[in-house]
Amino acid sequence: MATRAGTIEGRPDTDDPVKVTCEVLARRREGAYWLLSLAAPAIADRARPGQFVNLAVAAPDTLLRRPFSIARVSKQGMAAGTVDVVFAAHGPGTSWLTGVDVHDVVDVVGPLGTPFPLPQRQVACLLIGGGYGVAPLFYLADELTRRGLRVDMIVGAATQDRILNAIEAKRLTASVTFTTEDGSYGEHGRVTDVFDEVVERCGSGVVYACGPNPMLRAVSERCRERRIPVQVAVEEHMACGIGVCFTCVLPIRRKDGQVQMKRACIDGPVFNGARIAWEDTRYEIGPPLVVEDEVDEQPEPSRPTDADVWGES
Ligand SMILES: Cc1cc2nc3c(=O)[nH]c(=O)nc-3n(C[C@H](O)[C@H](O)[C@H](O)COP(=O)(O)OP(=O)(O)OC[C@H]3O[C@@H](n4cnc5c(N)ncnc54)[C@H](O)[C@@H]3O)c2cc1C
Ligand code: FES
User: Fold this and answer.
1) Which residue of 6, 157, 214, 229 has the fewest CB atoms within a 10 Å radius of its CB?
2) How high is the pLDDT of residue 176?
3) Coil, strand, or helix at residue 186?
4) Which numbered ligand comes closest to the C-alpha of 269?
């Protein structure tokens, strides 16, 4: 395995990101997506669910690295030291990555950003993923179930071929509900159309979400209405990925109500969804795909608060 590691300047701590040149161990199609498995033990050792890696791409006229969520790491066994990413090919960087072959080397920086905070008490966790946003939730589901927590999932996509690895979603969870916008797989509609039913059925006490930002806004608002603590991994356009350029800022509401711009690459990508001032962003929730039947208002059951679950003061 060809692997070279060096820590990022001025950050000697063992949790800090490293820059590695790593061998591609596998590359395969996963429905509409591509999976790359990289030999990167220094990143695998440090990584936690929710963090991302920045890959250098050699496509013409591309200077910037491309950020991808860490979909899985293996710390033990035959595949120890591997880091997987899943991506959709659409622009020059991701199209170039589809041409990377097994045994090629790729320059990677990671792990970057903040991980998902894990609940500090026993609580049923609902993981909601849209498109390739499901990838880091598999890694999170693994971590939560190893801690003895119940994990349920809602997996949404535009079409059936954009549902990422349905078998893995079923394997990792107590229950999984699929939605597609064209109705080609699972329930017809969006993840928010099944949200209430799943929360009730599974007794979900916390929500984690990853996917397109309009979906994260919709999920955060549903969680706020039901007073369920929510953590979201945002996908903000990034340039440097290490906190220097301020390309990736998002408005975050502090406890005193003041809104502060935070950098998604180092203060995130994981944020408390209830703290994002979504109304000050460009992310709009689209019109509903499914018109919901009117339901009688039921009194809300008492639920754990942010302070209970994440230990936030
Ligand atoms: C924290 C994070 C995690 C991500 N995880 C994944 C993943 O697991 N799988 C996946 O397929 N994609 C993921 N993305 C999006 C991915 O980074 C973009 O699809 C990719 O950078 C596009 O590069 P491109 O050259 O193909 O396209 P282009 O659109 O030509 O990219 C041009 C520039 O815009 C930036 N850019 C474009 N789209 C995005 C975007 N959606 N988010 C951030 N920057 C963007 C690129 O980095 C590049 O600098 C993630 C983005 C972030 C911020
Ligand atoms: S991408 Fe440069 S500061 Fe976040």
Assistant:
1) 6
2) 97
3) coil
4) 1
